[in-house]
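Exercise 7.
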Amino acid sequence: MFERNWFRKILLVVIIAAIVPSIIFGEPRLIEGQRGGDAWRNILFDFQTLIGGLLAIFAAWWTVDTMERTDVSAEARHQRTIDEGRAVERNSHARHQELVDLSQRAEKLKVERVINPQRSEVEVLDRKARQLSEVWPRIVNGEPGVWGRWVIAINSLVRDLHDVLHRPQFVGGEELFDGNLAFVVWTLRNGLAEVHPWVTKAYYFATESHTYEDEGALSFWSDDGGEERLNKFVSLCTDCLPDLIRALDKMGDLYNLSGAR
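Solution. The predicted structure, written as tokens, is:
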């Protein structure tokens, strides 16, 4: 653009230099009856067509130059508008990202409270449940002195698992559970509700002195499948607690909680 403008200006200067001196300093025509008068007026009169043409060329050049300048200015304004729009978009995106980060930070804190320290405690309970499952054959065989310790250990398992699954910080993050985690927690809570009256009565029999009536109640409890119900709960724990650990680990990975395990 800059080079074209200079080219037109130089061309105009060349044209003027080639024509104007001839008009002013060239020898005029000698026509009888047209002598005298104002010299400058004669020049304008004699060369009015040429002067008009030069003015038209100059006007055309000026128009084109103005239009190009206008186009350049319009393009610059358009580019500024685009740049300003992009700046606004970047600011809007940054603000949106900031809000998302704040929201995710709140969720991340909830997830962290769900996982810690519950995950490590569930891992301990899983080992305890597996140890209890190995005792079941000795219960079936009626090995002396095993039943009471087995019942007390199951009662501890029930109490500790109930505490973990009903802890406020664990319950407060349930809205962020995926389907699998929610189902595992629901299954374990149902198992706790079912086994609670059975293990409570068994714990009483295992820790308190018995009357004759208590012996009869224990016999009824056993005939109703009390031991099988306790063992069923232990089996439920050995099946579900590993799933619970994996689901909590997946949740921690989703929220980049590298120290959750």
